[in-house]
Each structure stands twice: as C-alpha cells, then as structure tokens.
Amino acid sequence: DAGVIQSPRHEVTEMGQEVTLRCKPISGHNSLFWYRQTMMRGLELLIYFNNNVPIDDSGMPEDRFSAKMPNASFSTLKIQPSEPRDSAVYFCASSFTYAGTLRGEQFFGPGTRLTVL
Amino acid sequence: AQSVAQPEDQVNVAEGNPLTVKCTYSVSGNPYLFWYVQYPNRGLQFLLKYITGDNLVKGSYGFEAEFNKSQTSFHLKKPSALVSDSALYFCAVRVYGSSNTGKLIFGQGTTLQVKP
Question: From CA B42, how far away is CA A112, in angstroms rounded?
C-alpha cells in the first residue's frame, strides 16, 4: 500500500486566495483525520470523519475552513479566503475503526506545507 | 479536561546510553496510549501503543514504553540510543467509550537529540 497520500506537498499562495488540500486515505480505512501543525500551537486536530461522515469539527478554526469526504478514498480541506496565519503544515491521517471504538493507530500522510503570503 | 503532558521540550543523550522520554496523561475512563515519531519534513510515524494487558509495550526500532496507571504515565524508553533516533516524539491518548472515540489528544512533543 502506498500509505496516505497528500497533495500538493507544498503550496504557496497569496492572502485572499482559495486553497484546496487533498488526501487519499489508506484503502480499507474508515476514519480520516485532518491536523494542522505549527510551532506555536503544536499539532491540532481540525476535523475527523468516520465512514465519510464528519464526526467532530470542533477544531476547525473558523468558517473559512471547510472539509469534505465525498467517498471513502478522497477528502479535501479548503481554506477560503486564506490568510497568512493559516501558514502551517497540514496532515491527513487515516485509521480503521471497528465496533465503534478506535483502537488502531492512525497512519499519517507526509503533509502539505502551506505558506500564505 | 483530558490532556497529555510531555514535561521536557528536549532530551539530550549520548549514543549508546539509555533514553527516556516522559509522558503523563489525564483522562476519564480507560486510556489508549500511543507514541509517534516525526523526522524532519515528514509525517508522524507510529511507534507503539498500549491498549490493555502487559504494562510494558514493545514497539518499532527497539523502543518500548511502560504504562503506569497509578502514576498516569507512559514513558518511552530505549536501552541504547542511536544518533538516528534524533527526532521529535509525540505521546497521544484516546479514551475508550467516549463519544469522541476517534480523537487523539497529542502532547506538545519532545525533541530527542542523540549525540555521537
């Protein structure tokens, strides 16, 4: 398996532009997570999905952020409009949940390094 | 409130010496505990986990961790450090039975520096 795939790996954009980050989870995994990592705030969970349904989006910073999972093999995280304070590394992770309890480990993608100028 | 603490921002150890990276947690219910490692410009990699059973858990790359319920700790250890172990280490916890069973709560990370 190729692992969790994220694209693009690097994104540089200007303030006010729309940014879309993409994630392909590991085949067979039914939970998907979006994280943001910065020096100041560390690793933050933004949102997670189980069976393509958003379960907890309490970590989404504000309405400029939105995430979708149209099918089991694809998810997007969109920022519109982007701001310089959104600059961070964004990670996608996936795992397998059974019996309603997540016992397995999460597998992380390589991340997207976003710079908003 | 549920939380994970890694009290040391950085741990320095000489190659060949034993290493310990500390982690304490505060959760309600039974904890599922994890250690991850992050190398520069890479995503997090799973090292080991404690779900139930033996308090000493063995993981990847010779690492192990000891679950101590009375001290609410889950320290990461390795008998003999390698320079290649130098990286950022994260402790994480998930609570069984919580409505947020999908969430991992991460510590702030500890940078391990192993010097030759």
Answer: 10
* Closest to B108 measured CA to CA, from B19, B38, B7, B13: B7
Question: What does pLDDT average to over chain B?
Answer: 90
Query: In whole angstroms, what is the distance from residue A117 CA to residue A115 CA?
Result: 6
Residue A111 phi, psi dihedral angles, 5° rounding: 90, 155
Task: Tell me how far CA of residue A14 lies from CA of A21, A47, A78, A83, B26, in angstroms.
Answer: 15, 24, 15, 8, 41
Question: What is the residue type of A67?
Answer: A
Residues of A in contact with B45 (CB under 8 A): 108
**B81-B35-B84 Cα angle (round to 5):** 30
Angle at Cα B60 formed by Cα A96 and Cα B72, nearest 5°? 75
Q: Per-residue pLDDT tens for B31-85?
A: 889 999 999 888 999 999 998 889 999 999 999 999 999 999 999 999 999 999 9
Query: What's the Cα-to-Cα distance from B73 to each of A98, B3, B7, B10, B98, rounded to whole Å?
Result: 27, 12, 11, 18, 20
CB contact under 8 A, A103 and B32: yes
Report pLDDT for A113. Answer: 97
Interface test with B, best of A105, A108, A113 (most B CBs within 10 A): A105
Start-to-end CA distance of chain B, whole Å, equals 41
Q: Do A107 and B46 touch (CB under 8 A)?
A: yes
